[in-house]
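Running this now, will post back.
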Amino acid sequence: MEVVVIGTGVANTASVLAALTGVGGRPTLSVDPAQVRTAERVVLPGVGSFAAGMERLNQTGLASALQARIQAGRPTLGICLGMQLLGDSSEEAPGVRGLGVASMATRRFPRPLVVPQLGWNGVQVPPGEGFLAAGSAYFAHSYRVVEPPVGWRVARTTYGSEFVAAIERGAVLACQFHPELSGPWGLALLQRWLTGQPATSTGDASPRAGLGVRLMPCLDVRDGRVVKGVHFEGLRDAGDPAERAAAYAAQGADELVVLDVSATDEGRVTARRTVQAVRARIALPLTVGGGVRTVEDAGRLLGAGADKVSINTAASRNPDLVTALAEQFGRQCTVVAIDARRRSDDWEVVVRSGKEGTGRSVVDWAREVEDRGAGEILLTSMDRDGTQSGYDLALLRAVSDRVNIPVIASGGARSGSHLVDAVQAGASAVLAASVLHDGLSTVGQLKQDLLRAGVEVRP
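Update: finished.
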């Protein structure tokens, strides 16, 4: 099952290639319009902005090739921005014309919703034959289609209000979500599209509609091994990262975070190999950080299989890097990690694994990185890291109350009750490390604790 994946230059192509290979496809990257026009199957992955995406398609001649094959009904799959580009226009880029093969317009989520929408949401599928079946999918976007195109089978979801989750017509399928990051359900959808076999059932009869809280195991990695300590010191070996990632994925993890704590150039090379190994084992979103100082560093990690890149010390040293990453790869790819240490009246941003103070207020810095283009904040209490004494709830409230982007709680989790406390303090996601590495609990057990407390999570 040969399939051509369009090389957009910025998207999560490594995740798409790995997922297609995992379900029996033989994917190749291409920017050749003739090949895209005639290939049996084509995937248009999408990460980035509407204007940049259309500019690349027009400059390379891929726009007309895609229009021709979609109008002819040839097997084509658009993912995230790849779905939006099929429409006529987007509020993200006034005046820029889309491919126009589906009569629809993309609009920004309204305030006060936390944007981007990052996480798992239920997909509701209408009656009728097609590739789509109901279930939970992973979304990462700031714009959505509200009015569905006429003549297409339309799946829907809800975040604030109802919007289009996917459209399909014959062999053409376009998803606002990321099937390649949506676990077994997403892989099954990709396999059906590859083979041309419709869904044999409607899937989950009543998938939860609404964004769930994400549970994210974190792997601190040095020299290709998972390590864990207290306050980033006294690091001990905690296993092979690819094996750990696969185990946590099987337990029901929503995302994985890999943070490279190596300090050498050789360690950076090892980190990319680690990302490749982890990507080969999981079909979940993967955030990678550590040692990212330039746009090129981020691009290499994304090329190795990361879906989001986290920056910390480099952002503090050069705040313009946050903007540069957002412009190149999109807000949904740009995570700013903030390490916080308590001082008398608030919290100070610290860098270099907590060894160096900056004098900068955590809350002020959080607001600045949001303005500069960050799509998410990974907020770690250095006072609580590795202590298993619970998250710093006052810190979480202070930051989540002042920003309109998702905040990931990090540092101090030991039990499900700690995770519940973090969510009640405003966290959109909860990161866990020692509680999992030390066998104190499992992902599944922690999710059960969240569910019993009335917190919505992906089953």
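DSSP finds 16 helices and 24 strands in the chain. More later if anyone needs it.
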